[in-house]
């Protein structure tokens, strides 16, 4: 028997069909490339993509705008004695989270809470137990100590810094200082810090009436930085703050002290509901002293709004 070999031939695609496929593929890539070029050109020319301003978005990410508060002007009596001025105080903050020390050779958080609390209690008006209780806050990254941890003086700041306590930081803050305490309080008035801007604003008395002169002008700083935090060339714009103007009163501190003491004696003796005293130069009309009862401490706000006998 003879064996037949059956040969299978591969079907050949028509040449025309191959050419059409290649042309369609080239056209597809060409159309895609053309669309991308158009899209890129539109973004480059307009700075917009999907309805968003890309330049504005980039600026929001890398543009830094900050303000520097100016020094508020001083208030003087007629003899040049300071009645109100800005002073630098300090706020105590304790970093309690261990995350702060990650990647660092030295601890950045409070490590020994008992020791830290015991040492801080020698400066703050708080017991070691109260301080330790705040340091044991496991949910917080950092903790503050309320009013007793703010308005710290330079001397108190130095004492705390000499303790070399890990995780303890002191931030400078500007406060208004009235060196004489209860002294022509309603006349001088008070300046309080705006909780949002941090700016000292006159709330009553001379502080409020002459606020536009005392407050000065804010300084500004703006620049664009790269992803590493370096400032881009020719982008830094800085305006230094302008100190506020001083205000000189006709009040004489020596006469004012006498009036304050006289009013205190009258309150103790006669128990009046209200009491006012004004000393004026009859020749010039200048007010040499002014006070009233009840009064208050403008620096602490103690007794503000208090009625006589309370």
Automatic annotation (TrEMBL):
CC annotations in GO: plasma membrane
InterPro entries: Beta-lactam/transpept (IPR050515), Beta-lactam/transpept-like (IPR012338), PBP_dimer (IPR005311), PBP_dimer_sf (IPR036138)
Example GO BP: cell wall organization
Transmembrane segments: 20-42
GO molecular function: penicillin binding
Taxonomy, superkingdom: Bacteria
Domain Penicillin-binding protein dimerisation: 68-230
Key words, A-Z: Membrane, Transmembrane, Transmembrane helix
Any Pfam family: PBP_dimer
Protein name: Penicillin-binding protein 1
Organism lineage: Bacteria, Bacillati, Bacillota, Bacilli, Bacillales
Gene: pbpX_1
């Amino acid at each position: 028997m003879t064996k037949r070999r059956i040969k299978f031939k591969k079907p050949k695609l028509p040449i025309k069909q191959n050419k059409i496929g290649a042309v369609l593929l080239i056209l597809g890539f060409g159309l895609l490339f053309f669309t991308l070029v158009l899209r890129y050109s539109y973004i480059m020319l307009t700075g917009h993509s999907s309805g968003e301003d890309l330049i504005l978005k980039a600026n929001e990410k890398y543009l830094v705008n900050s303000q520097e508060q100016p020094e508020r002007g001083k208030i003087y009596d007629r003899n040049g004695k300071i009645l109100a001025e800005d002073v630098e105080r300090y706020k105590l903050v304790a970093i309690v989270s261990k995350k702060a020390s990650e990647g660092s050779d030295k601890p950045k958080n409070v490590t020994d809470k008992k020791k830290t609390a015991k040492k801080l209690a020698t400066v703050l008006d708080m017991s070691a137990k109260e301080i330790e209780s705040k340091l044991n806050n496991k949910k917080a990254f950092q903790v503050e100590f309320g009013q007793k941890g703010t308005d710290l003086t330079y001397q108190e700041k130095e004492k705390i810094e000499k303790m070399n306590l890990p995780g303890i930081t002191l931030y400078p803050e500007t406060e208004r200082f009235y060196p004489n305490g209860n002294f022509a309080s309603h006349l001088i008035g008070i300046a309080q810090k705006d909780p949002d801007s941090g700016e000292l604003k006159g709330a009553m008395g001379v502080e409020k009436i002459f606020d536009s002169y005392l407050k000065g002008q804010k300084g500004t700083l703006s620049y664009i930085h790269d992803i590493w935090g370096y400032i881009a060339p020719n982008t830094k714009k800085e305006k230094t703050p302008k100190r506020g103007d001083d205000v000189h009163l006709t009040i004489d501190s020596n006469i004012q002290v006498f009036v304050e003491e006289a009013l205190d004696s009258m309150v103790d003796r006669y128990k009046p509901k209200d009491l006012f005293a004004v000393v004026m130069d009859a020749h010039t009309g200048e007010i040499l002293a002014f006070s009233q009862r009840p009064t208050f401490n403008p620096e602490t706000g103690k007794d503000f709004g208090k009625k006589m006998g309370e």
